[in-house]
DNA sequence: TATTGTTATACTCTATAACTATA
DNA sequence: TATAGTTATAGAGTATAACAATA
């Protein structure tokens, strides 16, 4: 079924393992902080943050799904939770009646503001503490092309987003 | 509760976002490959790989839990699944009757071998493709100290592993 | 016919607490 | 008393498929 690369070289293996471990630990810490300070899951935080970044505080469901890598139903579920908490509001889009526009409420903005400092604190203290400013730059410089590459690379067995749902 | 860093500088922010996105996409791709080629979750793969790395093909439950960051019950659950599939075997440890030693079976080793090439292929093609060898070295060099720092930093509100369960 | 989003449903995973047994 | 592990249980999250409505 395969006869190509039997292994990664030691340097690659180290980088790969470190990457997995670092993000795993970081994620864990961040999730805990978000849960404690705002009763938010990481996904919910990402959705709020994304809306907060938007000039209008709004996004269509589809646009949100694109960013947070999700099945449509999963997004509906999460946005439903956020709406139930009064953090966002859903309304039919003006231009396209099929679409739904999600908008951050004042409460949502407040929660975001309440949660952000602690979030930053965790990321700073855990991820950036052992790195100099130049090293952070170097890290960013290395990750950017990888990100671009991944974005451009469709998940091999992707049955296409056009045919099926959205996952 | 906090009055310090209100924000990360742009460079840090970029590095942080890229890190999250890159590992999220990588994880997604890897999980899909593992599911398709061996019907394994990522956690299960990690457990098998960890056992495969051991000279004896064995580990105590506790040692496994330490690496894969888990609650004890979660580990019991996953190892239970693997045992049900005949990929590992559990037996009381010889030296400490309280401990359980988990050992990779031949079937487990075979599955690991069957799944690994595709795994390596995904990681190579997605994570390492856009990086030169030197860049991979640089990446590894940046992540290593971060990993060490995180390992040494107890999760702030960690009620200690001694008092409670293990999470 | 294609796209947007929701619903129903089933399943996987994870965590907490209570419990057993050995050190 | 502390440690190793299991069990019961409950809850969060995710994905699939069927569905409704608009373009």
From TrEMBL, chains A, B:
Transmembrane segments: none annotated. This is MarR family transcriptional regulator. InterPro entries: HTH_MarR-typ (IPR000835), MarR/SlyA-like (IPR039422), WH-like_DNA-bd_sf (IPR036388), WH_DNA-bd_sf (IPR036390). It holds the Pfam family MarR_2. Residues 12-148 form the HTH marR-type domain. SUPFAM superfamilies: Winged helix' DNA-binding domain. PROSITE patterns: HTH_MARR_2.
């Amino acid at each position: 079924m395969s006869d190509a690369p039997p292994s990664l070289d030691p340097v690659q293996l180290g980088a790969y393992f470190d990457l997995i471990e670092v993000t795993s630990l970081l994620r864990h810490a961040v999730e805990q902080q978000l849960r404690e300070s705002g009763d938010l899951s990481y996904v919910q935080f990402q959705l709020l943050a994304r809306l907060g970044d938007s000039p209008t505080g709004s996004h269509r469901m589809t646009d949100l799904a694109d960013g947070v890598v999700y099945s449509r139903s999963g997004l509906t579920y999460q946005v439903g939770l956020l709406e139930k908490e009064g953090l966002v509001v859903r309304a039919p889009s003006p231009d396209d009646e099929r679409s739904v526009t999600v908008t951050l409420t004042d409460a949502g903005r407040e929660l975001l503001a309440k949660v952000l400092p602690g979030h930053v604190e965790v990321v700073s203290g855990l991820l950036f503490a052992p790195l100099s400013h130049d090293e952070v730059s170097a890290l960013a410089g290395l990750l950017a092309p990888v990100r671009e590459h991944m974005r451009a690379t469709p998940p091999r067995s992707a049955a296409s987003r056009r045919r099926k749902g959205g996952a």
